[in-house]
Records
---
Amino acid sequence: MRHLMSPLDFSVDELEDLLNLAGDIEKNPAKYAGACRGKKLATCFYEPSTRTRLSFEAAMLNLGGSVLGFASSDSSSAAKGESISDTIRVVSCYADICAMRHPKEGAALVASQRSGIPVINAGDGGHQHPTQTLTDMMTIRSLKGSLGNITIGLCGDLKFGRTVHSLINAMIRYPNVKFVLISPEELKIPDYIREDVLRANSIEFEEVERLEDAMGQLDILYMTRVQRERFFNEEDYIRLKDYYVLTKKKMKLAKQDMLVLHPLPRVNEISVEVDDDPRAAYFRQVQYGVYVRMALILTLLEITV
Ligand code: CP
């Protein structure tokens, strides 16, 4: 039985197979419509979500399966003090596969060690968000043609941004990928990513504070939200929340074929006036998230069509 905790749980070849499967699902949805008939997905979400939970549910429903679950810790027996280990043993009696989001780093890993069914990490605190990364990779590969030979600008909350950490981990395995890390001093990338992932693998990167200084060289601009829920101090959040706002004026500094991605939700960091720019790809990214989660469910349940 296989779980997904990090994008690195799949080899590059396995990721290629997964993205090819997601691409086939996009082209031939009817072929997969009954692939999971009789199977159940549990969504155990201890933290708010719109995209991840609903796209997992849409993915399983598209495959002909069923869904059950909870959307907050308050509406589960976690509120009565039940441990994750006990919860997953119970959920294993009801479902065939589980997607779990939790505010604590490592929570999905703990669950996977006690689970009788595959567990997918749907975001664990500020650590990893592997299915967002699969979504990002499918978006880049579909719209850019390949995952190599690109310069990716990561902008905003690089300290707590689990989507950023997962994406860097995954993309360093492709040739000639360079990163520009754009953040205020307080939200710089954690040392373990800078030293143990980027420097340890001799990946080219630079750190800048001004978005304008980076725009002209980017093939992908990955914007992120400053996450109120990760701050200990409201004053710091208020000071930093509008540090970056992508506007039409700033888009004039970018290449004509640069893509703007964002895991969403957006707050103020991308002005709505950018939404009509053909380079704004963040809503197309949402759609790719359904195909890639369908492919992941099939892969972890070892169902071939
Ligand atoms: N991208 C993402 O994880 O969005 P949600 O928090 O709405 O699931």
---
Amino acid sequence: MGEHIDTLLKVSRVIDPPADLRAHAYIQDYDTAYRQSIADPEKFWDSIARELEWFSPWRQVLEWNYPWAKWFVGATCNIAYNCLDRHVKSWRKNKVAIIWVGEQGEERFFTYAELFRQVNQCANALKALGLRQGDRVTIYLPKIPEQIIAMLACARLGLIHSVVYSGFSAPALRSRIQDAEARLIITADVGYDRGKVIPLKPVVDEAIVQCPTIEKTVVVRREHPGMALSAPNEIDWTDWLADQSAHCDPVPVDAETPLYILYTSGTTGKPKGVVHVHGGYMVGTYITTKYVFDLKDEDVYFCVADPGWVTGHSYIVYGPLLNGATILTAEGKPDYPNPGRWWNLIARYGVSIFYTTPTAIRLLMKYGEDWPRRYDLSSLRILGSVGEPINPEAWEWFHRVTGGTHPIMDTWWQTETGMIMVTPLPCVPLKPGSATKPFLGVEADVVDREGHSVGTGGGFAVIKKPWPAMMRTIYKDPDRYLTYWNTIPNCYTAGDICHKDQDGYFWFMGRADDVVKVAGNRIGTAEVESALVSHEAVVEAAVIGKPHKTAGEMIKAFVILAQGYQESPELLNDLKAHVLKQLGKIAVPQEIEVVTALPKTRSGKIMRRVLKAKELGQDPGDISTLEE
Ligand code: WTA
């Protein structure tokens, strides 16, 4: 990995931002703006927060009791109010907020006024079920506008939403509902995937059998005729909203009130519920969307994420709506019904900002340049990438086929950080493959294990000061929150390996822990291992990430079989089907190898690092703790 990065640094070219873009950008001189922001971060964040509306002001910008932060102390606000009411009161009332395109080619438009109306109706419907501030609502929906409406309606009332990606299977959904102790689940009859119908409601039915806290299930029915629902516990979405008034006062909440829980993978088998709050998260997502993408009222902003993941929360829903943007969101895969899908949407809706992922770019690369060339992409002006390191080949391809001049914002951040942390701004010279420099007000660095800055060189990515959109805790597990702050002294440890070059540019190189990034999705090796050992044929399992041409990484599992089981193609397929059933498609190992022993430390911990080095033909490094 080290050698690879060295060659990268040598070959990399520096690309200056287009002069006209820079001349009209919010931030035209990064170095000065960064220096000022970091000289007094609280002053910087205070001034940004004033661009939004608060019901009552803060006494103090930050209260910092390492590692517990409170931002905008004493203030009251509501993020949904800032996403909607603020615009509905202005000329933006009839501006298009959301353009939604379904997998079957359906098209729906929501102006700010229309979105406001439906969110209010949904909020009243939630109230009618007796839900109160602080209650949790699980949202298990495909990528349809109701997902966004439900999130905003919860926020409006101070309910906590927990969006679960609709590709997760019943056991994975169940554990997330149980941890959150949700009272309500909102789902759909089906989702669509490459033209195939994917039933969702049956997954919910299976999941909630063991979820006593769930009182009702609301179902968005997409198929005709609609599936039968059993009253009174199953409610049709349309009926649910039908008689509700389009007026619902927003609940002013304390700035530190939880907005959502989003479950993400870590180093143990149990997913962690990352908690974000109204006030600080609102300020962080608002300003990063505005400055990183130089978002203006004339823009059409297209982010390909799913609100089931954090990118969807921060950069489809909250950040862009806080800015009063016109957002394009599309259900489905980039190559269905053909590989021109996204290029076609860009041409058709005049997209000017296009935020996508390295894995999607690599997929589209496979289909060749003819596809993008067929469409008029002249509306584009700024591009973005997120989720994993973007390799320079993919970077160059993306840059070239979109016109050869638009800067690519390679944004590095995490579910836990809530907002983009290391990223170019449109005025920053780019190096393909580097996320460049920290965002304003963010003190990011690369350090050794003791927390000493490496200056130039490789080490661990850390954040040295609190930032407003940081997670506040891990739901019901504060000890797990502490691990982020006590791994390396006086820093938030991101878990990423990073290299800083002589110009201070950050080159993120992947995870330092047992997290695999498959097509940008974060999967804990421990989760896949525990799914495997829950199969009767497996006594022990170890999972590693292995480089993969399009997905970035793929999952490889090593398993030890129980007595009486023989390796066979049927058995291996059965194991894959088992993981599919336990966790969902994204977690299924592409390769499974049967072994008779696994490398372990003397204390019995599996050394995945050694397995990985062996698999990739690399030097395993220090193996002094290896048992045999
Ligand atoms: C990785 C996604 C390199 C990183 C927003 C991080 C990246 C993890 C980048 C968080 C990037 C995200 N360059 N690596 N631009 N963006 N990562 O929580 O390893 O799903 O720790 O959040 O993705 O994944 P998560």
